[in-house]
Automatic annotation (TrEMBL), chain B:
One of its GO terms (molecular function) is DNA binding. NCBIfam families: sigma70-ECF. Residues 187-219 are annotated as: Disordered. Residues 200-210 have a biased composition (Low complexity). It comes from the Bacteria. Belongs to the sigma-70 factor family. ECF subfamily. It comes from Streptomyces griseoaurantiacus M045. Residues 26-93 form the RNA polymerase sigma-70 region domain. Gene3D superfamilies: 1.10.1740.10, Winged helix-like DNA-binding domain superfamily/Winged helix DNA-binding domain. The keyword Transcription applies. Pfam families: Sigma70_r2, Sigma70_r4_2. GO terms for biological process: DNA-templated transcription initiation. This is ECF sigma factor.
Amino acid sequence: MADEQYGWLDRDMAERLLRGEPLPAVDENVRARAGRLSETLGALTPPPAREDRELPGEAAALAAFRAARAPEGTEAESGQVTAFQSADAGLVRLGRPVDVPRRRSSRRPVRLGLAAGLAAVTLGGVAVAAGSGVLPAPFGKDEPEPGSSVTARVTPRPSGTGAADGGGTGAPEGEGGTAGGGSAREGAGGGGARSGAGKGEAALRGSGAWWNGVLDSCRDVREGKSLDAARQRTLEDAAGGHDPGRVKSYCRTALASPGANGPAATNGNGGKDKGHGKAKGQDGQGKGNGNANGGGAGGNQGQGNGNQGNGNGGGNGNGGAGGGGPGKGHGNGKGNDVGGDKGPGHPGGGGHAHGPKRP
Amino acid sequence: MGDDAELTAAVLAAQGGDEAAFRKVYRAVHPRLLGYVRTLVGDADAEDVASEAWLQIARDLGRFSGDADRFRGWAARIARNRALDHIRMRGRRPVIGGDENELTGRAADSDTACEALEALATDRALSLIARLPQDQAEAVVLRVVVGLDARTAAETLGKRPGAVRTAAHRGLKRLAELLGADAESTGALDALPPQRQPRVRAVTSASVTRSRSRTQKDV
């Protein structure tokens, strides 16, 4: 009886419906019923993605794509069986063997690491942007200037979490700092995720203390004093190269920036931001990182920053560090205020690291 | 078919390492793949499972060969395997042919009335699909949602094309019955658009119902 009733749904009609093709000329009743069926099927079909908009998961897929094409040398060979593999083994019974032959398990961590890094970058974008400026841009620019933004987040944030804005940058292995900040400009950011390393240095970089150190070094250089290796290196990092001409030019700009001297003030707060790395803990590692950068920045920019002197703190957190490590993070932000007008400082943001995040 | 030609070209370029092409492939295929995965694992886990599938697709892309349709089929097979792994690990049954409640619930997350309506329609369609036997549901979804032809859908499922064709056809019939029943019960059919036609049950034609003959049902 059902068959009788649904006789209109013959093979041809079924094929058309399955393909989403227009229905043939049929009588009203059939049309109504076929239409209902076709609407239901249409509701199942996802709307096509807009070409210009990134879809969820896209970044991770791209990271995997890149990782898969990385030179073989970067992937350690190993014989371990991954979850994927073992899982697939059982699938065979369902049909034909999966068409995914051998895989190198070791790639997975790399991929995930990249994916995590990428995620960190994406998430951290805002923060990075906000915090940018702190670090000298290592790339390009003959006349390096000590950043110029900072503004983004001037508002004081009382609490200590920096977290909120996400951000961690932190470079992939270790030097968080550098990457962190610097890159901000390019968006790079850096995956923090990976090894955790974030290190304090990272934090430092964005901080007022770091900036002050750079300025001191610049002054010394200007006065003809020689720097010890560590300071020299810091300065070169800041300038983005060790060519003396570059360093000099960098220093000129740096010392000329408002931050360099004075109390300017305005922002006082620097610190705030960011900290916090988001990187998700993906693979086990803790990741964290963030680095903050914070605000510190202060320094620069125009805004006077008063900070200078005081470091602003910055957030920093960094947690990073750790990969794993639980704990690490520190936040810190210190307050800064000093300089500034703004007031009473709000403690910087502290970073927040969250180290312990391990999944 | 311009779309297919484009996808075919993008897949090739991606195999050559072109990132922009890979992105294009992702955007073209992901929504469909996600729609399919959702019918297998439910809404809550669909994105995770789909993204696992993409990791694998990205990694194994170099070994794939074929056109757009085959690519969709290949991607669907990978997604299916990831979904079945997921189900196995969770010790659950596929949503399809199982608990329809897991499929639904998206309407509540919608931001706008319009989206909510769409989500309702989708939820409702999914819950109907969930009432089909699994082989029928999957055949229908692979054809309709993933956009595979009968042959590719068969490859994806590891069955013969005839079997998949039959399963899809039966699935549609079953859906039509369910829709008819719902329409009749006038129940709370919130999601469906107003019925424009009175439901006349005239037997409209003398068409032979071939599907009645049970040809290799489930191979």
